[in-house]
What we know:
The protein contains 13 helices and no strands. The chain is mainly α. The protein has one domain (about 5-300). The longest helix has about 35 residues, at about 55-85. The model has no long low-confidence stretch (mean pLDDT about 80). Pfam families: Lys_export. InterPro entries: LysO (IPR005642).
Amino acid sequence: MLTGALLILAPLFLGFALMLENRRIMTVIHHGVEVLVYFILALLGLGLGQMDGLASQLGGMAVQVLILVMMLFLFNMLGLWAFHRWQPLVVAKNATDGTTGYRRLFMAGLKPLLAVLAGLLAGYYLLPEMPMAEQVATWSLMLLLFLIGVQLRNAGLSLRRLLMNRQGLGIAMALTASSLLAGLALIPVLALPWHDVMALVSGFGWYSLSGIVIGDALGPAWGGVAFLNDVLREIIALAIIPLVIATRPAMAIGYGGATAMDFTLPVIRSSGGLECVPVAIASGFLLSFLSPILMGVFLSLG
């Protein structure tokens, strides 16, 4: 089980406490985050590639990912639909500006998969066994969380203002609650201890976090399942946002999870208009904080 799981929270909050005003430093941090994400994903793939019996486990992993994605999609959409019925967000008609390059966004969504695939192939065919890879991945993740905390703190966003955004807070809570309910339903299906299943459903689209944290705790196979589940959430969100945001904006914004404040935000903006932007940022920001907290808490129970 993950030793000291709650320690992953320390660098996030430490980074959030650090206020920087130097734009050059923030630019370096931005590029550092991007490099670290792909480095961590490559290490995740490396762990998968060097896993004993990889070929025999791929079929089982595919089934587990499919079950996770389908169950979370069902529960999340029902929970977000219920919130929409309770607190509807009205989106202006003809809000779309048609400027978002969806092909470019979909290709960007495939980059994490390519990073993992590159690591997997290198680990399976080229590199000798690297016992230090897991420790390197853990320290890299802690550095990544610290830098993300710095980014969040210096993004001009007040935590108090974000918490006062009722729509954003409600969407984040609806996604969290519905994901945890899906986790309860998945306990007998996945045949894992309840706390491990609850950690597995708490990624909220943050694939670089969930893949490494779950992989460290439950092994590379489950780390791969967590990663694929969360990266597929991001890709599915890109497809459904333009289709449902005009009539069910809470469902469109919420399903993307933590990505609503960054990766899926351009699609939300172009499809739903400016009034959706603060809601999406608030929801994504809060889910970005809740994800490591929930995973750390649940995994520490093992």
